[in-house]
Amino acid sequence: MSKATNAALFAAIIAASAPAAYAQTRTVPETRVAVAHSMIQPDEIRASKLIGASVYDVQNRNIGSVKDVVLNKNGTVDAVVVDVGSFLGMGGKYVAIPLSDIKTDNNRLTLDRTKEQLQQMAKYELENPNTGAGTSPSLPTGGTLGR
Q1: Number of domains comprising the chain
Q2: What is the mean pLDDT for each group of 10 consecutive residues in the chain (147 residues)?
Q3: 3-state secondary structure of 13
Q4: What is the CATH number for 101?
Q5: Residue 66 near residue 82 (C-beta atoms within 8 A)
Q6: How far apart are the C-alpha atoms of 34 and 130, rounded to whole Å?
Q7: How far apart are CA 42 and CA 45, in angstroms?
Q8: pLDDT for 20-39, tens place per residue?
Q9: What pLDDT was estimated at residue 23?
Q10: Looking only at Cα atoms, what is the longest distance across the chain?
Q11: Among 77, 23, 21, 89, which Cα is nearest to 47's?
Q12: pLDDT of residue 21
């Protein structure tokens, strides 16, 4: 994983956790939920463990790996980007999967789709050349995340 990708991921994780930490110290709008526990729960997964993890189909075949996690301005996950069909980083493509579609089974990520179904999905671009979205390791000047 490149340094730029690591930096972007770190910034996104910090930014995503900031609203929850901030919410614990002040009165919050009804739409924001404070973290109610002090350790990771069985139904949670760390982004650092998610990125790079192999994804398997229901027949236990490796169908790709998690390339990135895309957060929206509210700090919630919009998509999990899966690298499908590449070999040594070549020949594949990225597809966006809703986080809710990815399940954990015996400490592995599983998806109720085949590799062929993923390869037929629309290609997902991690960078938008028209707007510059996805190229910055942090929020643009003056931007806010979930506040």
Answers
A1: 1
A2: 52 53 45 72 83 91 93 91 79 90 85 91 86 67 52
A3: helix
A4: 2.30.30.240
A5: yes
A6: 36
A7: 8
A8: 444 444 444 455 556 677 89
A9: 42
A10: 50
A11: 77
A12: 42
From residue 41, how far is each of 35, 52, 64, 107, 116 by CA, in Å? 11, 21, 26, 14, 33
Whole-model pTM?
0.65
Query: Is 66 within a domain?
Result: yes
| 115 touches 63 (CB < 8 A) | yes
Between CA 19 and CA 35 the distance in angstroms is 10
Give residue 8's domain range.
3-119
**E strand or H helix that includes residue 71:** strand 62-71
Structure tokens at 23: 């919410």
User: What is the DSSP-derived secondary structure letter of residue 101?
Assistant: G
42: which 2 tokens?
Answer: 């069985």
Residues 122 and 88: their CA atoms lie apart, in Å, by 21
